[in-house]
Amino acid sequence: MKRSFLELLRCPYCGSIFELSEVIETYGSEIIAGCLKCECNSFPILEGIPIIFNNSVNKYILKCLINGDIKTAFALAINGYSNDICRVADFISSKPSRSYFKKLIIKSFSYLYRDKCEFYSDNSKYFWDILGPGLYEDYLRHRFSCQTFWTLYPFIPIIQKKKQLILDLCCGCGHASFVISNYVNPDELVCVDADFRNLYLAKKYFSKGEFININANEQLPFKNHIFSSVIMMDAFHYIHAKSLLSKELYRIAESDGNIILLHIHNSLMENVAAGIPINPSNLKNLFKDSSIKILPEEKIIQDFIHNSRLNLIEDYADEDLTSSNLILIKSPYAEEFSELWDKINPRENNLIINPIYKIRSKNENKILLELEFPSEYFRREYPITESFLVHDYELDLNNLDSALIGNLIRKFILINVPKKYIDNNLYKI
Q: pLDDT confidence of 218, banded at 50, 70, 90?
């Protein structure tokens, strides 16, 4: 975290500005470990990430940092059960005669995660390999391969027009942040998530910017009207306090800035991993702004992948929105964008074969690919992905010119990923 980042922040609990009360570790101009203080509380900075939570575990993380025990602080931060463990420790040690139990419980718990901390911080590991088994890990590995993620690409020309200060809200492990960093090249990017582990991985593997660990169900720790664009992907349906968040988005975005909420689960249709979906009418009522447009996600994706186009002029009737997930956009650029692929140019290309394809055979001349979803659950979640991607493809390496590469990118047979995404020479071209 750079010191200048503090100029954008305010405490979400008391509204006061933050002061850097202690610096424990630095790397160049970045503060790696330290303490932020406001009028109501103190908050730790760990791995360059401010942790703005008013909960039990934060005070222990801060205490560990001050005592120089970075490993224990990191173990507490990356584990989702830490707050519950710390609450139990507080309860058990509430009587003076039992106070020694607190230190014993927390030390024992964090010790169990020391190896995991070293595993995450191992710089030789690739993102693909650092994830464990499970459906969520399948989602993270193949995030670039899916239709819900493809909704970001047609909006890149709009975001480029408002790229001074961009917020990637509920950024997860940073897939969208990577695209924003590499394709938009913002003046400054801020990445927010409620999961410290996600932010740590996003910072390590996916993008450069400022990172902050907060809960989007509460007031956001930013000053008024500072963001030129706010992006939120595949997350609004997991927010409980949707009404509060809609007001907060207006508060932190510039009056003529972009607010783009991608892949919102529609309660009028069935969704895998639905979260707390919302219907189109209630979504529009949350924002109460005539400039807000609700778009049918499926039509936007189809228009982009088949026609390289985004039409923000067209208005959609209620019946158009009943059988599709949703996109919400507030933008001063209500126009039609054509030839979008010509406008989507990354600063750096690290092209690999889409890992959703299994390589059946490979030699110096040809690679035979076959579409293979990591699970049936995954396949059911992304029907457009299955219908759009070719199921079998023979890649002729002798004719791999720029025109063919461009065509393979548009078909998502080749994808652009961070350099430390996957270490598998089979997927390199």
A: very high
